[in-house]
Amino acid sequence: MSALINEVVGNEALLAEQLVFEQIAADLVSQSWSVVLDGLPAAVAQPLFQQVRDLNDSDFDPAGIGRSQDHVHNSFVRRDQVRWIDGATMAEQVWLDWAQRLQTYLNRRLFLGLFSFESHFAHYGPGDFYKKHLDAFRPNGLERGARRELSLVTYLNPGWESSDGGELAIYDAAGEQVVRRVSPVYGTVVVFLSTEVPHEVLPAMRDRYSLAGWFRVNGSVADRPDPPQ
Fold it and tell me: pTM of the full predicted structure?
């Protein structure tokens, strides 16, 4: 009987995951971004939450903009801290496996050609922010290399209230009007086209934790590297 119960539970979890992935795919086609409340399964979110709770301030590094020799810290643009994920813990492995399944689904559904993924924990302290930006520059058709195509964000903040601030503001393609404000509530998943969707992290009133990740395709702009978020 227990084997049957485990199979039913497993099938239900798989179906729920496929529904989330399909909603993301459909949203990307219709509007270039997707917001799914409770989109991250509890089995993925809980160990990540436990890990981030156990981290100290010294485990994070100040976030910057630009890459390689162009990477700089600019407190006028962003004031968050990051810790890159390398799969060293079981929580990170579970997260990377989930992201890989999302990558596979979107490649099959939308033919995006995503071939790699990178991500980090992000910590915004009270008053921290990240001004309006794009995660990647549009390619000019001549460049080669790995370019960010799709951005993924999920949140690890139980009990988050609207008065806590820290929303992700998603802008229209022109970067003029906010079309959606996303509260960083635990388990919410946001996915958007890295070169198409301007966005901004508004100041938080208390500690705000998230994971940010990027799926890459071939085609980086050699002299205009895409900045890490």
Answer: 0.85
